[in-house]
C-alpha cells in the first residue's frame, strides 16, 4: 500500500485547521480592537 | 481563615475527590475496557466461547503458514504465557508479520484454537530507520 | 496574583507577544513539517506513514495541554476570583477542541495503513473522543451566558471535573490491552530512534506557539468586545 496519500491527507487537514483557526481568531481580534479603539477616539 | 484560602482548600479537596472517584470507576472497568484478550488471560480465565472476541499478542516466529487456496493462513499468537493457534481467511494488513503484534477478531473454538474474521496489525512504541532494524529490535511481548 | 488582573497591564504584554508567537510558530511548524516529510528516513515497519507522527503528537499534546490550561484557569477563577481566568479558559476551548479533533483525525488516517482500521473502540481512542466531547460541552456552557470576560461558576467546575479524563487518556495504553501502542517518549527516554525523532521538537514547539498566539488573540478579542459593550451600556444609560 502506498502511504503517501494518507500522509498528505493528514498534513493537509492539519494545515487547513491550523490556518483556519489562526485567521478566524486574527480577524475577530482586529475587528473587536478596531471597534473598541474607534469608540475611544470618539469620546 | 481567609475566604481565599478556604476556597483553595475546597477546590483542592474537590479536585482530589473527583479524580479519585474517576480513577476508581475506571479501574473497576479494567476487564471490560480491555480491547482484546491476551493468550495468557484465556489460559487463566477459561475460553470465552459464547461471544465474538478479540485475541491480541505477538505472531510467533516462523508460525505463519499459507494454505494452498491462497487466502487461508494459519499462525500462532503468543504473549509469553500461552500460545493460541489461529486460522484466518482473507487479506491481512501490510504490517501483519511474524514477531510483530496482531489483534484478531473472531471466536474461540472448543479445542482452544481461534478462528479470525478480521486481522488488525499492532505495532509497538519503537520507531527506527530500516537499516537499524535487528540491531535495536528485540522481540518483546505486548505486555511489555 | 492580581498583578495582571488589570486588562490594560495584560494587554501591554499580550500585544507584542502575539506576533512573536505567531511568527515563530509558523516558521517552526513549516520547518518541522518539511523535515518530517522529506528529511527523515521511513520507519522500518510502518514505512512513510510514520511521518503523520510529526503532526499527530503535537495535536495530542495540545488537546490534553489545552484542557490542563482550562482546569488551571478554572481553579484560579474559583479560588482567587482572578478576572482574566475566565477569559483565558474561554479562549483555550476552541483551539483545544480543534487540536483534539486533528489528533483523532490524523490518528484515524494513520491507523488505516498501519493497523488496518480507521477506528476501533480502544481505550486510548475512546478516551480522546471523550475529551473532544468535553471541549464541546465546555464551549456550550461558556457561551450559555452573555458575559464575555468570565465563565460561570458551573462552567469552571466542569473544567475541573473534566480534568479527570487527562490521566485516563495518559494511562489508557498501560491499564488496558489496547490497539494503540504504549508511549514512546517517557521520562525514561525515547524509543524513537534519533534519526526519526528530531523533527518532532520543532513541530511540538511550533504548534504550541501557534496555539498560544491563538489563545492571546481570542483573549484580546474578548476583552475588546467587553470594553465596547461596557461603553455602549454606559452611553445608553447616560
Explain what this protein looks like in three dimensions.
The complex is a heterotrimer of chains A (43), B (144) and C (238). By secondary structure, chain A is mainly α. Chain A contains 1 helix and no strands. Chain A is rod-shaped, with a radius of gyration of 19 Å. The mean pLDDT of chain A is 90. Chain B has 144 residues and is an alpha+beta fold. Chain B has helices spanning 3-28, 39-45, and strands at residues 53-59, 65-66, 72-78, 83-89, 101-108, 114-122. In chain B, a hairpin with a 5-residue loop joins strand 5 and strand 6 (114-122). Mean pLDDT of chain B is 81; it is low at 136-144. The mean pLDDT of chain C is 90. With 238 residues, chain C is mainly α. Helix content of chain C is 74%, strand content 2%. Chain C has helices at 7-39, 53-80, 85-114, 123-143, 153-162, 165-175, 194-197, 200-237, and strands at residues 185-186, 189-190. The radius of gyration of chain C is 20 Å and the shape is globular. Classes of the chains: A mainly alpha (43), B alpha+beta (144), C mainly alpha (238). Chains in contact: A-C, B-C.
Q: TL;DR of this structure?
A:
With 43 residues, chain A is mostly helical. Chain A has 1 helix and no strands.
Helix content of chain B: 10-25%
Helical proportion of chain A, percent range = over 70%
Spatially, the strands of the biggest sheet of chain B line up as: 1-3-4-6-5
Strand content of chain A: under 5%
Order of secondary-structure elements of chain B:
HHEEEEEE
**Continuous helix count of chain A:** 1
Largest interface: B-C, 47 and 44 residues
Give the biggest sheet of chain B.
5 strands, mixed, barrel
Instruction: Report the uncertain regions of chain A.
Output: none
Major sheet size, sense and barrel closure of chain A: none
What sort of overall outline of chain B do the alpha carbons produce when their principal axes are compared? Answer: elongated
Q: Based on helices, strands and strand pairing, what is the structural class of chain B?
A: alpha+beta
Mean pLDDT over all positions of chain B: 81
Number of helices, where a helix is a run of at least 4 consecutive DSSP H or I residues of chain B: 2
N-to-C CA distance of chain B? 50 Å
Q: Briefly note the structural class of the backbone of chain A.
A: mainly alpha
Write down the secondary-structure element order of chain A: H
Strand content of chain B: 25-35%
The rounded distance between the terminal residues' Cα atoms of chain A is 67 Å
Amino acid at each position: 500500500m502506498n502511504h503517501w496519500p494518507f500522509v498528505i491527507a493528514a498534513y493537509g487537514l492539519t494545515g487547513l485547521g491550523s490556518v483556519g483557526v489562526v485567521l478566524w481568531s486574527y480577524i475577530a481580534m482586529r475587528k473587536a480592537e478596531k471597534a473598541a479603539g474607534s469608540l475611544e477616539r470618539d469620546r | 481563615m481567609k475566604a481565599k484560602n478556604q476556597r483553595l482548600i475546597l477546590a483542592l479537596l474537590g479536585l482530589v475527590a473527583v479524580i479519585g472517584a474517576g480513577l476508581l470507576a475506571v479501574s473497576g472497568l479494567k476487564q471490560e475496557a480491555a480491547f482484546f484478550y491476551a493468550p495468557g488471560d484465556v489460559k487463566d480465565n477459561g475460553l470465552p466461547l459464547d461471544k465474538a472476541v478479540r485475541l491480541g499478542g505477538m505472531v510467533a516466529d516462523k508460525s505463519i503458514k499459507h494454505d494452498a487456496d491462497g487466502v487461508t493462513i494459519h499462525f500462532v499468537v503468543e504473549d509469553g504465557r500461552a500460545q493460541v493457534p489461529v486460522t484466518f481467511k482473507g487479506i491481512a494488513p501490510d504490517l501483519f508479520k511474524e514477531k510483530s503484534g496482531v489483534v484478531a477478531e473472531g471466536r474461540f473454538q472448543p479445542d482452544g484454537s481461534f478462528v479470525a474474521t478480521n486481522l488488525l496489525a499492532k505495532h509497538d512504541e519503537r520507531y527506527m530507520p530500516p537499516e537499524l532494524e535487528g540491531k535495536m529490535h528485540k522481540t518483546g511481548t505486548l505486555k511489555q | 496574583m492580581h498583578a495582571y488582573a488589570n486588562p490594560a497591564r495584560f494587554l501591554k504584554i499580550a500585544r507584542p507577544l502575539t506576533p512573536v508567537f505567531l511568527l515563530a510558530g509558523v516558521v517552526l511548524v513549516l520547518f518541522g513539517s518539511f523535515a518530517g516529510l522529506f528529511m527523515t528516513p521511513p520507519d522500518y515497519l510502518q514505512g512513510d506513514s510514520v511521518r503523520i507522527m510529526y503532526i499527530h503528537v503535537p495535536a495530542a499534546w495540545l488537546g490534553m495541554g489545552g484542557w490542563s490550561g482550562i482546569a488551571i484557569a478554572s481553579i484560579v477563577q474559583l479560588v482567587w476570583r482572578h478576572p482574566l481566568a475566565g477569559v483565558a479558559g474561554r479562549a483555550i476551548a476552541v483551539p483545544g477542541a480543534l487540536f483534539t479533533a486533528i489528533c483523532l483525525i490524523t490518528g484515524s488516517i494513520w491507523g488505516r495503513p498501519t493497523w488496518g482500521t480507521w477506528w476501533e473502540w480502544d481505550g486510548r481512542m475512546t478516551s480522546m473522543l471523550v475529551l473532544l466531547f468535553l471541549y464541546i460541552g465546555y464551549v456550550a456552557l461558556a457561551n450559555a451566558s452573555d458575559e464575555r470576560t468570565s465563565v460561570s461558576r458551573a462552567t469552571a467546575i466542569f473544567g475541573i471535573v473534566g480534568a479527570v479524563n487527562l490521566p485516563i487518556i495518559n494511562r489508557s495504553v498501560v491499564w488496558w490491552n489496547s490497539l494503540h501502542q504504549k508511549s514512546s517518549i517517557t521520562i525514561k527516554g525515547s524509543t524513537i530512534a534519533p534519526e526519526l525523532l528530531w523533527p518532532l521538537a520543532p513541530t511540538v514547539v511550533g504548534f504550541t506557539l501557534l496555539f498560544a498566539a491563538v489563545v492571546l488573540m481570542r483573549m484580546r478579542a474578548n476583552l475588546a468586545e467587553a470594553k465596547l459593550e461596557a461603553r455602549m451600556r454606559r452611553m445608553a444609560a447616560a
